[in-house]
């Protein structure tokens, strides 16, 4: 972990998702950075840790490179940013689009996690595993279920579970209709429940 990431992690612990009260909002920072590019670094300090955590859960070690690329893409697109979504959801959207080039890496990661967890005894509670999808719940059956999902369905499911985005935010950052978000999430949850149920001991 770089010194910059350590500073960002410390900032995130103290001020999760926001800057101190006496600092400008994310929207103000990104607008100011168009004329003063150095101002953009404050957004890294505020949001790098949760974006990195999301990427690391999805693809493992390549997360470091994709984090840097996420912020590079965001920097290049900062002039076209609109405040209707919010900076953090916007960054998660960019990160998710970058993950798409690593679909095979992500699927291999989930299958490897499943093999590592094969010795665990009790399966997770299905609904709890689907809703939380946290590191503790990512066991063999859930990892296999995630690996089996179509990439588009997995994107929506993990943006809901790991990035904590609303349906409206997901629709905006992925540039898809709200109804498509709902249908993909419904399908992902149904297929995940089915995969988990099939793994339960009889």
Automatic annotation (TrEMBL):
Hydrolase found in the keyword field: no
Keyword DNA-binding: yes
Record keywords, A-Z: DNA-binding, Sigma factor, Transcription, Transcription regulation
Residue ranges, annotated region (Disordered): 1-28
Biased composition (Basic and acidic residues): 1-16
Domain called RNA polymerase sigma factor 70 region 4 type: residue spans: 140-190
Domain RNA polymerase sigma-70 region intervals: 43-108
Superkingdom of this protein's organism: Bacteria
Family to which the UniProt record says this protein belongs: Belongs to the sigma-70 factor family. ECF subfamily.
Name of the molecule in the record: RNA polymerase sigma-70 factor (ECF subfamily)
Taxonomic source organism: Micromonospora echinospora (Micromonospora purpurea)
């Amino acid at each position: 972990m770089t010194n910059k990431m350590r500073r960002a992690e410390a900032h995130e612990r103290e001020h999760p998702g926001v800057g101190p009260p006496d600092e400008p909002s994310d929207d103000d920072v990104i607008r100011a950075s168009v004329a003063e590019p150095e101002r953009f670094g404050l957004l890294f300090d505020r949001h790098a840790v949760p974006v990195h955590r999301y990427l690391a859960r999805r693809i493992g070690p390549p997360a470091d490179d994709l984090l840097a690329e996420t912020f590079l893409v965001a920097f290049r697109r900062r002039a076209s940013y609109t405040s209707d979504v919010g900076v953090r959801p916007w960054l998660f959207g960019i990160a998710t689009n970058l993950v798409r080039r690593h679909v095979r890496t992500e699927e291999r990661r989930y299958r490897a996690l499943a093999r590592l967890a094969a010795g665990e005894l009790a399966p997770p509670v299905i609904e709890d595993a689907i809703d939380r999808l946290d590191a503790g719940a990512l066991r063999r059956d859930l990892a296999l279920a995630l690996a089996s999902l179509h990439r588009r369905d997995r994107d929506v499911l993990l943006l809901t579970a790991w990035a904590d985005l609303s349906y409206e935010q997901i629709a905006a950052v992925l540039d898809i209709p709200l109804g498509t978000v709902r249908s993909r999430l419904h399908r992902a949850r149904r297929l995940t429940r089915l995969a988990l149920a099939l793994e339960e001991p009889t």
